[in-house]
């Protein structure tokens, strides 16, 4: 293997790492208040950015906001009026509780169920911890 190959390898490695990092992003909520409803228009983008199921995130937000919510395609509608800041903060709280590894702080985690117990498994450091069901 010559220098050129080594360089190519290094570049591939870097771009792979960038992709892994780039995959994760907490999108800011796009919020629309209509009458007594608050609509998050980019809800599916937010949940896919977090690598989580929309329904799981919705369940969490509904509970946190104490408002029923319903999914409609890419958007979600909550009964009640909420500010974008409030929704963004709840999404960050969700990420803290259900996405980021508490050991290494990386977002490369998965929710798994073992013997009826919900756990978060970290792909980066291999740690597992219990998570509360929503
Ligand atoms: Zn970890």
Protein described:
By secondary structure, the protein is α+β, with helices and mostly antiparallel strands. It has two domains: 23-99, 2-Layer Sandwich (Alpha-Beta Plaits), CATH 3.30.70; 102-134, no CATH class. It is built from four helices and seven strands, in the order αββααββαβββ. The strands form two sheets. Strands 1-2-4-3 form a four-stranded antiparallel beta sheet, covered by helices on one side. The chain has a three-stranded antiparallel beta sheet with strand order 5-6-7, with no helix packed on it. The longest helix has 21 residues, at 3-23. The model is unreliable at 17-21 (pLDDT under 50). The protein binds zinc ion.
Summed up:
This protein is α+β, with helices and mostly antiparallel strands and 134 residues long. It is built from four helices and seven strands; from the N terminus they run αββααββαβββ. Residues 101, 103-104, 106, 122, 124-125, 127 line the site of zinc ion.
Bound molecules: zinc ion
Shape: globular
Give the helix proportion (percent range). Answer: 40-55%
Number of alpha- plus pi-helical segments: 4
* Strand neighbour order, sheet with most strands: 1-2-4-3
Task: Give the overall average pLDDT.
Answer: 89
For the record, the count of structural domains works out to 2
**Proportion in β-strands:** 15-25%
Question: Could you list some keywords that capture this structure?
Answer:
134 residues, alpha+beta, Alpha-Beta Plaits, four-stranded antiparallel β-sheet, three-stranded antiparallel β-sheet
């Amino acid at each position: 293997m010559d220098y050129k190959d080594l360089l190519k390898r290094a570049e591939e490695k870097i771009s792979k790492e960038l992709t892994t990092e780039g995959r994760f992003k907490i999108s800011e909520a796009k919020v629309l208040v209509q009458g007594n409803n608050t609509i998050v228009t980019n809800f599916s983008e937010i949940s896919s950015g977090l690598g989580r199921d929309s329904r799981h995130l919705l369940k969490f937000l509904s509970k946190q906001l104490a408002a029923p919510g319903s999914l409609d395609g890419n958007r979600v509608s909550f009964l009640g009026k909420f500010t974008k800041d409030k929704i963004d903060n709840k999404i960050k709280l969700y990420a803290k509780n259900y996405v980021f590894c508490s050991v290494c702080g990386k977002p490369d985690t998965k929710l798994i169920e073992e013997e009826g117990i919900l756990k978060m498994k970290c792909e980066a450091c291999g740690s597992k911890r219990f998570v509360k069901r929503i």
